[in-house]
């Protein structure tokens, strides 16, 4: 699959089949995370992969009761390593790699930004000096949502100078 096909085809998935992801597929998706670029190649992030049913159930109320958090096959929590200016940027790039690699493997994802940072950190045993910055659900889709709209190129892009539109 070429990159633009994955970029065009990926949509947030909020309904999942109860199908396990094989170790081989999961490893390949995580390899896309590992290979993501980072500022100064510092790779100052860590990723917690939750597949256990009990923990996923406990995560639901900590994610504003988003039920699909408990129904996905794997829940990924990206941990910021402190003291590095670009860590949040780096871990966001890493998670986006995951969304596209997952799509190529027939998996769906949904970013999770609505969560209780302290409570998730506590549940997952994140050390005090680190924090979960963003999360992702991962699993085989049980829906085919329509594409959400995007702003037009004219709204988004300035050519050569701010305010110069095409
Ligand atoms: C940083 C971030 C946080 C998000 N948090 C949530 C969330 O907590 N729950 C949810 O259902 N979707 C969440 N989303 C998904 C967005 O709503 C979705 O990406 C957007 O509406 C565009 O839809 P699409 O992903 O299908 O293209 C989040 C997306 C991003 C990038």
Order of neighbouring strands in the sheet with most strands: 1-2-4-3
Strand content: 15-25%
Total helical elements = 7
User: What gyration radius follows from the Cα positions, in whole Å?
Assistant: 17 Å
Content-based structural category: alpha+beta
The CATH level-2 architecture is identified as 3-Layer(aba) Sandwich
- Give the number of DSSP strands: 4
SSE order, as H and E? HHEHHEHEHEH
Rounded mean pLDDT is 97
Identify the overall geometry: globular
Measured as a percent range, the helix fraction is 25-40%
Q: By CATH's scheme, which homologous superfamily applies?
A: NADH Oxidase
Distance between the termini: 31 Å
Weakly predicted, low-confidence segments: none
Biggest sheet statistics: 4 strands, antiparallel
Q: Provide the number of structural domains.
A: 1
CATH topology: NADH Oxidase
Oligomer: single chain
Q: In CATH's first tier, which class applies? A: Alpha Beta
Concise account of the structure shown:
The protein is of the alpha+beta class and 166 residues long.
């Amino acid at each position: 699959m070429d990159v633009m096909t994955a970029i065009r085809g990926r949509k947030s998935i909020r309904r999942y089949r109860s199908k396990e992801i094989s170790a081989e597929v999961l490893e390949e998706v995580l390899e896309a995370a590992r290979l993501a670029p980072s500022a100064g190649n510092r790779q100052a992030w860590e990723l917690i992969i939750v597949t256990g049913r009990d923990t996923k159930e406990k995560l639901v109320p900590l994610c504003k009761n988003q039920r699909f958090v408990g129904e996905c096959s794997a829940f990924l929590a990206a941990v910021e390593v402190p003291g590095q200016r670009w860590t949040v940027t780096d871990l966001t790039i890493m998670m986006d790699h995951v969304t596209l690699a997952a799509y190529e493997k027939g998996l769906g994802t949904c970013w999770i930004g609505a969560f209780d940072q302290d409570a998730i950190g506590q549940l997952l045993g994140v050390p005090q000096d680190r924090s979960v910055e963003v999360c992702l659900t991962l699993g085989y889709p049980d829906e085919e949502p329509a594409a959400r709209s995007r702003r037009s190129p004219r709204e988004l892009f300035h050519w050569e100078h701010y305010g110069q539109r095409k």
